[in-house]
Amino acid sequence: MTTTEPSRGAGLALVIIAAVAFSAKAIFVKLAYRYGVDAVTLLTLRMGFAMPVFAYIALIEERRAVARPAMQQIVVVVALGLVGYYLASLLDFIGLIYISAGLERMILFAYPTLTVLFGMLLFRQSPGRRMPLALMLSYAGIALAVMHEIRLSEGHVVLGTALVFGSAMAYALYLVGSGHMIGRLGTARFTAHAMLVSSFAVITQFLLTRPMTLLVQPVPVYLLGLAMALVSTVLPAFLMSAGIRRIGAGPAAMAASVGPGSTIVLAALVLGEPITAIQLAGLALVLAGVGLISLSRR
User: What's the rounded Cα separation, in Å, for the pair 101 and 19?
Assistant: First the structure.
């Protein structure tokens, strides 16, 4: 065994745990909705519980920083925080009202294809020879899963799909725009400030559109909000960063493909959502498309 193998094994484990923890968010949201809480209130609880952690990290990073960020950098961080965490989370939470947790995770996992597309449009990046095939596989898988869920459900599946796809687009825009800022500010510093911007936006929306009495919820809703904040927000953010440092972004993207599969399994065990052959076929197509893009970008 070489000296690098233990570190790579640890990195792989960190990425897998992060992917599963982040994917569990949809399960927590679905469980909380059973108590009648609305999407904005639930998102406020999640960000409210996570906010002190990121505020502490931001404080530490600012003390370590050699120079204060320029005004232009502050504006960019605010914009990216609003798009990548506030808008993406809001659309995702509302979309989960209408579609299953498994379909939600499958749609969100297609964000690498959107990241490449936005990179092509905004920065004239080369798409690569595998890009057309990757897009065809990914979106064929999503279409297959969506049509299957429409047949099984009487709800607004198309609306939910559009909302979650909008969430994936917002997150992809955040990723495309964050690369430059991470290079300037550092990963922890940038992420902490972007999350604080998102938290302030979510709380402001709640204060402007909801009565304070909605914060009075059953104890399980508070526990689920805390789980979303710690297990599916703070924990995976740090574990994924640590894993990427050990094994690199390309292998980490491939290892993170366990996320959608884990959501489907957890949704079946916890929520009673059915696992069907068509759903698994759609997932396989999405994973194949994302895998092609991850390999080409690596």
Answer: 15
